[in-house]
Amino acid sequence: MITAKQTLIHPLWLRLTHWLNALAMLIMVYQRLAHL
Which GO terms describe its cellular component (predicted)? Predict the structure, then answer.
């Protein structure tokens, strides 16, 4: 059984990890460009 609270938290957690992933990729790309 899934509670309403869990259905609210889950998409938020997915969005958060997605943003962290994107941010990490941006930092990696930025560092590579800075080294060139």
Answer: membrane
Spatial distance between the Cα atoms of 22 and 13, rounded to a whole number of angstroms: 14
This prediction's pTM: 0.58
Residue 35 CA to residue 33 CA, distance in Å, equals: 5
What does the alpha-carbon distance between residue 25 and residue 22 come to, in Å, rounded to a whole number? 5
Query: Which two structure tokens, joined as six digits, stand for 22?
Result: 């994107």
What tens digit of pLDDT does each residue of 9-21 get? 678 888 999 999 9
CA Rg value for the chain: 16
